[in-house]
Every structure is written in C-alpha cells, then in structure tokens.
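Reopening this one. Same input as before:
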Amino acid sequence: MRPELEEVQLLESYLRGTLSEEQRIEVNVRLLWNPDWQQKLAAQKLAYQALRLAGRQQLRRELDAIYLRLFG
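Same output, byte for byte:
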C-alpha cells in the first residue's frame, strides 16, 4: 500500500479508537512533533464532519419526501 494511504488508514483508526496502545502512542508522538501530521488529522476530522452533515441532510430530504407522500 502507498505510504499516503497507510497514513490515512492509521489516522482513521486513531480517530475511531481502534489502534493498539502501542500504535496510539506512536501516533500521539507523531502528532506532537510533526505539524504536517497535525494538519492531516485536522483535515481528516473535517472530512468526516462534512460527510456526517451531508448524510444528515440527505436523510432530512428523504424524510421530508416521505412526509409529503403520506400527508401531503
């Protein structure tokens, strides 16, 4: 796997809390000493927030359409 994808996967696991204790410590150390990693983590968090928001908006549209069909 490409190193960039491995980093994304590692940060994703970090955010989900699925890393081993050793891996979590390794990521924490990298985050402390590497501003680039801090930016990557922030970007990944922002991407997840955007996806959650888009999903909520889509769900709201679908529920509104159902409401209109039932009670419209």
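So the earlier flakiness isn't reproducible anymore. For the record, The chain has a mean pLDDT of 93.
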